[in-house]
Design a protein that fits this description.
Blueprint (H helix, E strand, L loop, with lengths): L1 E2 H10 L6 E5 L7 E2 L3 E2 L9 E2 L3 E4 L9 E9 L13 E5 L11 E4 L3 E3 L5 E4 L9 E2 L10 E3 L7 H9 L4 E5 L3 E7 L3 E2 L10 E2 L2 H10 L4 E8 L3 H11 L4 E5 L10 H7 L3 E10 L3 E7 L2 E6 L3 H19 L9 E6 L3 E2 L5 E11 L2 E6 L16 E5 L5 E2 L4 E6 L2
Parallel strand pairs: 1-20, 7-8, 15-18, 15-19, 16-17, 19-22, 20-25, 23-26
Antiparallel strand pairs: 2-14, 3-14, 4-13, 5-12, 6-8, 6-9, 7-11, 10-11, 20-21, 21-22, 23-29, 24-28, 25-26, 25-27, 27-29
Helix pairs in contact: 1-6, 3-6, 4-5
The structure holds adenosine monophosphate (AMP) and magnesium ion (MG).
Length: about 400
């Protein structure tokens, strides 16, 4: 049986980045840039006041208090008309262009209005450059401001607006089809009768994929027969990624693996040394990557996070494809039952400036409710025999 680390390497090694497409920048949130973006302007575009106050010559404020003559009132968006000379000041607002001659701005709070309208008393000295944002200090014309493979977050949207980039090239996100298998499954609207359960995996898996900006279609529920499984898989082969849940264990009705093989799927692995989620199949049929995940809801959740998450990220052009892992101190001892990699739903929190993690109460791979009390997965490594309280452990952050 292969290890989790080997399985993750196999899935990512067999994933290719998708073609790019052009989108309006307002629609680009959550996508990944397919080219560098250059600035067409300096930012700030002119020497800009960072305060409401007076534009002055710093040397004039060497000895305070001092009175200066106010020659102009400059609002943001208006072009200064007068050069500031020795003994003079211009009233200036935040965001306005600093007039020629002035080399500092003193804020209102450090001045005093005099009775005479065009005089101001400066109460504090300022040094050259104070409260002035220099032209081009944030970005220069022609500079690469965003680079290829960067994820587009709200702050990148703001930069696209700043540099006037209305249309951008992004990598496409994958199309994902989801199939749930099981004679016992009924849909959400039905009340399960004896021996039935509601299909939850289709919806949790769809939500996991949509969270990553994938285009998801829930194909439906199929019975545990080769015919039904086979025709559902064939429908799903137009997708970039096809996810099945259930029907991959050793039971008499676990037929998904056989059907995948009958259809000519190339199988990369069928089992991973992992808990929960040992029976997990990864294959490729034509361009479609097929993941057959175990039916138990926590196993399907965890195996998506481990194997499908990095594949979606790689397809959409990201270079950092995995979830963030941190090290946190265990609150309580944990007992390792079998030397196989385990992922346990856990809760991480900050206490006295350090990260503390504790497992949530959990009854095993069917207990999805436990994951609603968790914000991370604790990684119980296969090469460690026991974990004592206070020991540092790897934690995969989910939120
Ligand atoms: P299987 O992997 O098909 O052996 O299923 C393992 C367990 O997961 C069984 O108890 C199933 O009833 C349950 N299960 C399978 N598919 C789903 C699903 N789509 N939603 C919720 N539970 C499921
Ligand atoms: Mg089943």
């Amino acid at each position: 049986m292969i290890t989790v680390d080997t399985a993750i390497k196999i899935v990512t090694d067999n994933t290719e980045i998708l073609p790019s497409k052009t989108v309006h920048f307002e629609e680009s949130l959550g996508f990944c840039l397919a080219h560098d973006v250059h600035s067409d302007i300096d930012m700030p575009p002119f020497n800009r006041s960072a305060m409401d106050g007076y534009a002055v010559i710093a040397e004039d404020t060497a000895k305070v208090p001092v009175e200066l003559t106010v020659i102009e009132n400059i609002a943001a968006g208006s072009v200064p008309k007068k050069k500031v000379l020795r003994g003079q000041a211009s009233k200036i607002m935040t965001g306005a262009a600093v007039p020629d001659g002035a080399d500092a701005v003193i804020k209102f709070e450090e001045t005093e209005d005099l009775q005479s309208a065009n005089r101001v008393k400066i109460l504090k000295s300022v040094s050259r450059g104070s409260n002035i944002s220099k032209q081009g200090e944030d970005m220069r014309v022609g500079q690469v401001v965003l680079s290829k493979n960067m994820p587009i977050r709200p702050q990148e949207i703001g930069i696209l607006a700043t540099v006037g980039k209305s249309f951008v090239e992004v990598f496409s996100t994958p199309t994902v089809g989801i199939i749930s298998t099981g004679n016992e499954l009924v849909d959400v609207a039905s009340k399960p009768s004896l021996a039935q359960i509601r299909n939850s995996n289709s919806y949790s898996l769809a939500a996991q994929a949509r969270n990553l900006n994938a285009e998801v279609e829930i194909i439906g529920i199929v019975k545990d027969t080769k015919d039904e499984i086979s025709s559902a898989i064939r429908m799903g082969l137009q997708k970039d990624i096809l996810i099945l849940s259930g029907g991959v264990s050793m039971g008499e009705y676990d037929l998904v693996g056989d059907v995948m093989k009958d259809l000519g799927t190339h199988i990369y692995f069928e089992k991973v040394a992992l808990r929960p989620g040992k029976p997990v199949i990864f294959g490729r049929k034509d361009k479609t990557l097929i993941f057959a995940l175990p039916g138990n809801p926590v196993a399907s959740f965890v195996t998506f996070e481990l194997f499908v998450y990095p594949v979606i990220h790689k397809m959409m052009g990201l270079t950092d494809v995995h979830r963030t892992t941190v090290r946190a101190a265990l609150e309580t001892e944990i007992i390792v039952k079998r030397r196989r990699r385990e992922y346990r739903p856990a809760f991480i929190r900050l206490q006295n400036n350090s990260w503390i993690v504790s497992p949530v109460e959990w009854h095993g791979s069917a207990d999805l409710l436990a994951t609603t009390r968790a914000n991370c997965l604790m990684v119980v490594r296969e090469d460690v025999e026991r974990f004592i309280a206070g020991q540092l452990i790897d934690v995969i952050l989910l939120d």
